[in-house]
Write a structure and sequence with these properties.
The chain is of the alpha+beta class and 343 residues long. The protein contains 10 helices and 17 strands. The chain has an 8-stranded mixed beta sheet, sandwiched between helices. A 6-stranded antiparallel β-barrel has the order 4-5-8-7-6-9.
């Protein structure tokens, strides 16, 4: 497994606290010489204009925005009792049961066991056990309002990766690798650069913040950039184990979403993704999703954006042991590169 994906997974990045993830992304952009900015919402926006679009016709140009969110689900401390136990609130939408008996990790390195007081708990039934003896001892390490992420082991086996926070560090990894591949190809063949310029498009790659809190970062980025087209890269639940019969399966290619509970994908974008996959022999599958994505807010901003979703099949979503297939990751990278570098 690429060490970059490992670093992204291990970076602390609960919603609103994506600094460590941003640092990794900025470092990778510096390595390949791409310009970026960070807006007031904490989004990192990479603009390819200075690299490949210097001759864009401003009156006829189209703006294309690729987007992947940086943040993960998390926990927030709401109360510390006299015995040093901490009550919790949730950051993001997930099942409380799925994280019981896991380890919560705070930004300062403090760890705690996630415990529950009921057989079928809700988030209010969960508490953290640090092994502290008192509230005073706990306050030396954490305070009300501190956030934590779910800690888990990273397992790379048979081309599969099992880890926490693959939602959506896998999407960030896909965007970074697509940018690296684009730069490498352009450096090797100047004709590619000339062909891209003929498309008369501006390309933006957005690493967005606070998706788990309603897509706040992506919404702000879309308002600022006013894209004509937007393509969101995110994971989607694959219930394809022996106990289920999901049509969306890991290892069967990148997903081209048709609709989910927050968005009906624009037919023009769906066809664009389909044609790109067919022309470049990229393995894909159609998805009718259960999850919402940042596409829900992006497509409504400013005067609207024609929005599509590239989905990465992920088992055991929002647990410490999410699972993806690296072949699907490669298919997603190839799809993005092929959308920009046309045959």
């Amino acid at each position: 497994m690429d060490s970059l994906l490992n670093k992204l997974i291990n970076a602390f990045g609960a919603s609103g606290h994506e600094e460590k993830v941003k640092d990794i992304i900025k470092e990778e952009m510096d390595k390949i010489g791409l310009n970026y900015e960070e807006d007031r919402m904490g989004n990192v926006i990479v603009n390819l204009k200075s690299y490949i679009n210097s001759s864009v016709d401003e009156e006829k140009k189209e703006r294309v925005m690729f987007s992947a969110h940086m943040d993960s689900i998390g926990l927030i401390v709401t109360y510390i009792d006299e015995n040093g136990f901490a009550k919790l609130g949730s950051i993001g939408n997930f099942s409380a049961q799925s994280i019981v008996n896991s380890i919560a990790s705070f930004q300062n390195g403090t760890l705690a066991r996630i415990c529950c007081s009921k057989e079928k708990p809700e988030i209010n039934d969960l508490f953290l056990d640090f092994g502290f003896k008192s509230r005073e001892q706990a306050l030396e390490h954490i305070k009300e309002g501190n956030t934590a992420v779910i800690k888990g082991e990273i397992i790379n086996q048979n081309g599969m990766v099992m880890a926490p926070a693959l939602d959506n560090r896998a999407g960030c990894y896909i965007l970074i690798k697509a940018l690296q591949t684009l730069v490498e190809k352009i450096k090797k063949d100047n004709k590619i650069l000339e062909n891209i310029k003929k498309e008369n498009r501006e390309y933006y790659f957005v690493f967005s913040s606070q998706s788990q809190l309603g897509g706040r970062g992506a919404r702000a980025a879309a308002y600022k950039l006013e894209p004509d087209y937007a393509i969101v890269i995110d994971v989607e639940s694959a219930e394809d184990t022996s106990a289920n019969k999901s049509k969306f399966k890991i290892g069967q290619g990148v997903g081209i979403k048709i609709m989910d509970r927050t968005l009906v994908v624009h037919p023009e974008v769906k066809d664009m993704l389909y044609n790109t996959a067919k022309e470049n022999n990229i393995k894909f599958q159609y998805v009718v999703g259960q999850e919402g994505t940042d596409g829900a807010t992006i497509h409504k901003e400013a005067s609207g954006a024609k929005t599509g979703i590239l989905s990465l099949a992920c088992r055991y979503l929002h647990t410490p042991e999410e699972m993806i297939d690296l072949k699907d990751v490669e298919d997603a990278i190839n799809m993005i590169v092929s959308l920009i570098i046309k045959k």
